[in-house]
Write a structure and sequence with these properties.
Helix 14 links the parallel strand 16 and strand 17. The strands form 4 sheets. A 5-stranded antiparallel sheet has the order 1-2-5-4-13. The protein is of the alpha+beta class. The longest helix is centred in the middle third of the chain and has 20 residues. Among the domains are: 137 residues, Sulfite Reductase Hemoprotein, domain 1 (2-Layer Sandwich); 140 residues, Sulfite Reductase Hemoprotein, domain 1 (2-Layer Sandwich), CATH 3.30.413. Helix 9 packs across helix 10 and helix 14 packs across helix 15.
Length: 540
């Protein structure tokens, strides 16, 4: 008898029924839930060491943000933390900084999902890490793996005077609902959620799997619009807007989050790992069919949406010093170039946050850190202290707009070094004296786009090139990515740029812009109207 043919769109029921051939990852998840690895991480793996960990268990350790760093055989791990909305207290930050100083060689990285990751950990370190963060109310559950990743939001939610509303309660409630929940711990692939009431949509709803973004109806009522199916990596997709409006009622918001999560869990393409992200299902179904399925899964009639206004400039993390909506207080966002910060500097930031503010802190999706609730009377002293400790709240446009992935320093997928190259690139560009205004330069070590190079003004993707017969680090250059109004992905304009020449090519692009812009036209708008052939010719 011939084998039963797989369904056209293999779903979770088909996987559980054994109706399709399982991928390696699906087999592992069916045999043992990813969350079940915690006992082993705290027990036998930590006791018996790296050599005692079976190969398939390395897939499951990702569920707790514990991920083998490069090379996989080294015995060292990367560790991510889950921090919804990038929010934490100075007390929690000190615990993280102290652990990094003791066990992670004294540094941390701020990620584009508003959390911290550390390197150079051994499996024996995990119980220490887990117990310390648990003691201050934190977790790493779902920080990696086929689970709900860190829920992102506006880093100045609740204090930004221009926000539509503070979405923090909804973001935290959604994260609580999905974290450590075995109903949703076996998803087809990673699952990224953005929930924000920010007026400029800084939390990037266009490129998340599920996004609830703040809107106002024509009658002035605030609530959420909904986007689904965004994502980058090798096959980038812009999220589709569902024709619905969600009132600011926690139960209804959570019903929508649960409903979308169930659709992804039950209908996602588990038979093909390369098409398992929610973006592929949404691309096939379309917004209307997805909305109809969502309506079946929520406990209330979905209200019709409107034509929501897109922000003109969505790419910001509110960098610098700004007044809060609370009269007499300010927030300060400081730069962590390339997302890297020394443990002692993070600890100092935590101390300053407590001394001069409320101790509330936030990580941004541009890899920076915000201190909130600084009284006007204390602001000058705080800024003086930040200057004294080399924690910049003033920065060039190059520094403010630079983002880097991990690169070959630690990542098993990367093909070039990125962190140090971005730090040097910013220094080289600052030395030119050029002032292009706002410009976003994102550098990725491979096509998977952890630095989001497809939505940058200038995006760089790692590759290799031959120079004088020797293979060297190199980059492909993309221009013109943007989110919000006129959203689009960047386009390739130059290939195989040796890493050592990166600053020369960027300088040439900036000089071309400065020579041909119209009035005060921004670099982003210039790229939008300039034919790619002209840009390619200028860079040739």
């Amino acid at each position: 008898m011939s084998e039963k043919p797989p369904p056209v769109a293999p779903n979770f029921a088909a996987v559980k029924a054994g109706a399709i051939k399982l991928t390696h990852q699906e087999r592992i998840k069916q045999e043992k839930d990813g969350l079940a690895v915690l006992d082993d991480l705290l027990g036998r793996f930590a006791r018996d060491g790296f050599a005692s960990i079976p190969e398939e268990e390395f897939e499951r350790t990702k569920w707790f943000g514990f991920y083998r760093q490069r090379p996989k055989s080294s015995g060292y791990f990367m560790q991510r933390i889950k921090m919804p909305g990038g929010q934490y207290t100075a007390e929690q930050g000190k615990v993280i900084a102290e652990f990094a100083a003791e066990r992670a060689r004294g540094f941390l990285d701020v990620t584009t999902r508003q959390t911290f990751q550390m390197h150079w950990l051994q499996v024996e370190d995990f119980p220490v890490f887990w117990n310390r963060i648990k003691a201050v109310g934190m977790t790493s559950s779902g920080a990696c793996g086929d689970d709900t990743r860190n829920v992102v939001g506006c880093p100045v939610a609740g204090v930004d005077p221009h926000e539509i509303f503070d979405a923090t309660p909804f973001a935290l409630a959604a994260s609580r609902m999905l974290t450590d929940n075995r109903d949703f711990s076996n998803l087809p692939r990673k699952y990224k959620i953005s929930i924000s009431g920010c007026a400029i949509q800084c939390a990037q709803p266009d490129i998340n799997c599920l996004s609830l973004f703040g809107v106002r109806r024509a009658n002035g009522e605030p609530g959420f619009g909904v986007m689904v199916g965004g994502g980058l990596s090798i096959s980038p997709h812009l999220a589709q807007v569902l024709p619905v409006f969600v009132p600011l009622e926690e139960k209804k918001v959570l019903d929508v989050v649960r409903g979308v999560s169930e659709i992804f869990r039950d209908e996602g393409y588990r038979a093909n790992r390369m098409r398992a992200r929610l973006k592929f299902l949404v691309a096939d179904w379309g917004a209307q069919k997805f909305t109809e399925e969502l309506q079946k899964r929520v406990g209330f009639p979905l209200e019709p949406g409107e034509e929501w206004v897109r922000p003109k400039d969505a790419e910001s993390d509110h960098f610098g010093v700004h007044p809060q909506k609370q009269k007499g207080f300010s927030y300060v966002v400081i730069s962590c170039l390339g997302g890297r910060i020394r443990a002692e500097k993070l600890r100092k930031l935590c101390e300053l946050s407590s001394e001069f503010g409320s101790g509330r802190m936030r990580n941004t999706n541009k890899q920076n850190i915000a201190l909130l609730d600084i009284p006007e009377a204390k602001l000058p002293s705080l800024l003086q202290a930040l200057d004294a400790h080399g924690l910049p709240y003033r920065a060039s446009e190059f520094r403010k707009g630079a983002i880097s992935c991990t690169g070959t320093e630690f990542c098993n997928l990367a093909v070039v070094e990125t962190k140090n190259r971005v730090m040097l690139l910013v220094q080289q560009l600052e030395e030119t004296g050029l002032n292009p205004g706002k410009i976003r330069i994102h550098v990725s070590g491979c096509p998977y786009s952890c630095s989001q190079y497809q939505v940058a003004d200038l995006g760089f993707r790692g590759t290799k090139a031959k120079v004088d017969g020797q293979q060297v680090d190199a980059f492909e250059m993309f221009v013109g990515g943007r989110l919000g109004d006129g959203r689009r992905f960047s386009e390739l304009v130059k290939s195989r740029i040796p890493s050592k020449d990166l600053h020369l090519v960027v300088r040439r692009a900036i000089e071309f812009y400065l020579a041909h812009r119209q009035g005060t036209e921004s670099f982003t708008d210039f790229c939008a109207r300039t034919p790619r052939e002209q840009i390619r010719a200028a860079l040739a």
